[in-house]
What does this fold into?
Amino acid sequence: MVYQYLAARLKELGQRPRICKKGNRVTSLSTWCGVEFRDITRLLAPSTSLRKFGQLFGLEQAKAHFPFAFLTSVERLKEAQLPVDEALWRSELSGERLDSAALQRIKDEAAAMWSALDCRTVDDYLAGYLHLDIEILYLGVQKWNSTLEEVLGLNFVELGRYTISSLSYTAGQKDLEKRLCVGSFFPNNSQMYAILRNGMRG
It folds into this structure.
């Protein structure tokens, strides 16, 4: 959505945003004034979803469910209730095969959220769903960054390092610098070693 609307608007204003892509997927978009939008998946393992990301940090907030197959037109947003058809609640993105019990649980959780948000239309529910996504992402990133800073002395926002590989490289350099040990290439810190090992490529 950012790419589709923001990039088009910036081009209308005569500005040329810098866009990085991986295949058809936009991974980052940089504006002329220094604001950057980055895809969180560049920092996560390939199979990590936003739901797992929130669980990883023990967040109280849990990712909600939305029947995207239901949105065949903008008019559907005006509907006064969520769909009951189980087929519309199956996610093509996750690839999970859900049985009837799991789908019923998803519909029950969605109904509870509908009531909690006092929704009157599907549009209200979608706004709440998206707001919750942003909240989970924000809180998870804050916890992650503070943990990295506490354990390794790294802050990926200040460093401008937004991939596991670049964080691993920086962590290794900081360890060598701290010990001032020329020719020593092995981190004497189990947590430092873990981030380096997990960030290995090739």
In short: The chain has a mean pLDDT of 81.
